[in-house]
Amino acid sequence: MRLTRYTDYAIRVLLHLAAHEDQTVSIQAIARAYGISKDHLMKVVQQLSKAGFVTAQRGRGGGLRLGRPASEIRIGDVVRETEDGFQLVDCGSCKVAPVCGLPRALNEATTAFLAVLDAQTLDKIVADQAAARRLLALAS
User: Fold this and answer.
1) pTM, full prediction
2) What is d(CA 131, CA 19) in angstroms, rounded to the nearest whole number?
């Protein structure tokens, strides 16, 4: 399975915010740290905010923060929120679909994939916040 760039950006935003848990961070700062488009990130942040992963404060002194503790953000939930679907093949027009076991096997694989991601929380992925901050600062 391959995740979309949109999901990649969503996870990067969350990683950045987890590394800077003690402060608000601008979209521009995240875009600069990763070398990606601010415009792309604005759409991603809007969805993450709507889903409660991020809180956004407008105005002077505003910025982004995690919407809940990093220990409560499961990567599987982020992937489910940002990916359109998990149907890996379209069997609708296939002649052998009624007797084929491939859809069941692929569904099993997708379930296992998401189960592994559900076991990963944001705090586990960003275990060393200080090191993550240093690396992100070097990239800016």
Assistant:
1) 0.87
2) 8
Q: For the chain, give every domain's residue range.
A: 5-139
For each of the chain's 140 residues, which pLDDT tens digit applies? 789 999 999 999 999 999 998 899 999 999 999 999 999 999 999 999 999 999 998 888 789 999 999 999 999 999 999 998 888 888 888 889 889 999 889 999 999 999 999 999 999 998 877 787 777 776 65
DSSP single-letter state for residue 65: E
Asked if 119 contacts 77 with a C-beta cutoff of 8 angstroms, the reply is: no
Do the beta carbons of residue 138 and residue 130 sit within 8 Å? no
Q: What does the alpha-carbon distance between residue 28 and residue 33 come to, in Å, rounded to a whole number?
A: 9
The alpha carbon of residue 97 and the mean position of all alpha carbons in its chain are separated, in whole angstroms, by 33
Domain 5-139 has CATH 1.10.10.10: yes
Tokens for 80, please give them.
Answer: 């489910």
